[in-house]
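Worked problem 6 (solution included).
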Amino acid sequence: MFRGLKERLLFLYKFLQAPLSTGNIVPSSRRLAQALLAPIPWERVNTLAELGAGTGAVTRHLPSAQQPMQVLLFEKDQELRRSLKLRFPDYRCYPDSSRLRLALHNGKLEKLDCIVSGLPFWSMGGEKRTQLLSQISASLKDEGMFVVFSYYFKQIQKDLKPFFDIQSTTFVALNFPPAVVYVCRKKANTEHKKNVQWLSVVAAKGSRVLLER
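Solution. The predicted structure is:
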């Protein structure tokens, strides 16, 4: 109970310091954490990243018995990240979700089975959201799972659709504020389709384009 109160006070303090990057005045509730993690087929997940891990409100519900699962935690705030390292010494911690691909490269990982996000997408500009979602998609294996929640931010559905198939949505009333969880799968052969489109442009415009590239 004391830990929970301490987390709430710390989260509130961080929100007052940087409301847009923190996204809320309290950490995710236990019900929201369960809604995020329940759809994940853990028996098939060997590599997972959590974006915006914060105080570990979701992280602590990860199935610790699932081995040899590799977990990457991303948290921008230095103090929160330091706390995550102490509480979850078996997980790797990184400061910047926008450098997800670089973190995978440095960790000698090619692609992830699953990504869970607590990032405040609503506070990002449209271009930044698109860039981040594109990188998330590129970091997942074919048909890899992406689970994200949002506070009544309908634009997120439009932003998700170019990269993911939304398989289900769950409304979590017992959270402040109430949230919607989106369970998504990476669209099959997304990268292949992009390559085909680029080759079509090259063929249409001639060899000069290929030389310029």
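Discussion: Residues 9-16, 19-23, 194-213 have pLDDT under 50 and may be disordered.
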